[in-house]
Design brief:
Radius of gyration: 23 Å
CATH class of the largest domain: Mainly Alpha
Strand content: under 5%
CATH architecture of the largest domain: Up-down Bundle
CATH superfamily of the largest domain: Cytochrome Bc1 Complex, Chain C
Order of helices and strands: HHEHHHHHHHEHHHH
Largest sheet: 2 strands, antiparallel
Length: 353
């Protein structure tokens, strides 16, 4: 007489997955330095991205991507929908935190030399993820369709138009016409809820895959003595618990920030009235200040050139090292100067009238 298979066997038949692989992943050794939370910022970015997705889906149920109704729908979310203001504030601040986390993560990778061979491609993916995250913030800010966000979109598309060779075509595509109008909002909405999340998910997936294939760069610090049997620890539960604690702390900080500084709402967009002071979001302050110091075309060219050098830096540095014996200390100096330039321009614009 055949015995009826148990629930576990039935599940194994329906989902023929080798569950021992999960145990293998959980027992993967993790370098000692990852016990320090500031070396775990990659997980922070992933956590914030998940919050963005969840809160963004919730907001999509109430947002109306039409120039006639966009502002009114955001106002309804903020003032009428139960806890709508809180969800919107979480979405806004998790986006801000995510940009900061990506920047800090890339700074950590750069100044510890973790971008070098064979991890050059992962640096490029991380840089693309930074650009995608900033574009996320810009398109989301524009969807509010208030006065400053409308004119911020106008300035941004003018900057896009100044890109050499492809500028006019790019600006026309973003605007959906010769100037910012009804089609612009629709295109930004499609970018924000469809194209950019897909691109971000693919980049995050590729980034994690390459980290898995290459492993985490082991860092050794001068004067630090670690016993050989303590140089690594298990991914689970030690590292997994650390990531969970960071996630809980982030949620606590996001909640406090949303409560103390809830997302506001300015005057509705008016294409006929130009505001006296137009400012983009803080992560574009450096470019806005550069625009004021130079010209439209020159600021765009300088920004693109700096971005191209940063994107290709692992390969540029490797070439310089082979040809000119380029010292590591010079890379640190150049990275410090580049970040200080970004910081100075950002703070300058933040306090400028």
């Amino acid at each position: 007489m055949n015995r009826d298979p148990g629930l576990r066997q039935r599940l194994q038949e329906m989902v023929p997955f080798d569950w021992s692989l999960l145990r293998h992943i959980g027992s993967e050794p993790v370098p000692y330095h990852l016990k320090k939370w500031w070396f775990c910022l990659g997980g922070t970015v992933l956590y914030l991205f998940i919050i963005q997705v969840v809160t963004g889906i919730a907001l999509t149920f109430y947002y109306v991507p039409s120039p006639d109704e966009a502002y009114a729908s955001v106002a309804a979310i903020t003032r009428e929908v139960r806890f709508g203001w809180f969800i919107r504030s979480l979405h806004k601040w998790s986006a801000q935190f995510m940009i900061v986390a990506v920047i800090l993560h890339m700074l950590r990778v750069y100044f510890t030399g973790a971008y070098r061979r064979p991890r050059q491609l992962n640096w490029c993916i991380g840089f693309l993820l930074l650009g995608t995250t900033m574009t996320f913030g810009f398109t989301g800010y524009s969807l509010v369709y208030e006065q400053l966000s409308f004119w911020g979109a106008t300035v941004a598309t003018n900057l896009a138009e100044a890109v050499p060779l492809v500028g006019p075509l790019l600006a026309y595509f973003l605007r959906g016409g010769a100037e910012v109008g009804e089609n612009t909002l629709t295109r930004f909405y499609i970018l924000h809820i469809g194209v950019l999340p897909t691109v971000a998910a693919l980049l995050v997936g590729l980034h994690i895959l390459l980290v898995r294939l290459h492993g985490v760069t082991e860092l050794h610090f001068e004067g630090e003595t670690v016993r050989e049997d303590e140089r690594h620890f298990a991914f689970w539960p030690e590292h997994g618990t650390t990531e969970l604690m960071i996630g809980v702390l982030l949620m606590y900080l996001l909640t406090l920030t949303a409560l103390i500084f809830p997302a506001g709402l300015g005057a509705p967009a008016d294409p006929t009235v130009t505001p006296l002071h137009i400012k983009p979001e803080w992560y574009f302050y450096f470019n806005f200040r550069l625009l004021k110091l130079t010209s439209l075309r020159l600021s765009v060219v300088l920004t693109l050139a700096a971005g191209a050098v940063a994107f290709l830096w692992p390969f540029i540095e490797e070439w310089l090292s082979r040809r000119l014996k380029f010292p590591d200390a010079l890379s640190v100096l150049l990275g410090t100067l580049a970040f200080l330039s970004f910081l100075v321009l950002t703070v300058w614009e933040a306090f400028a009238g």
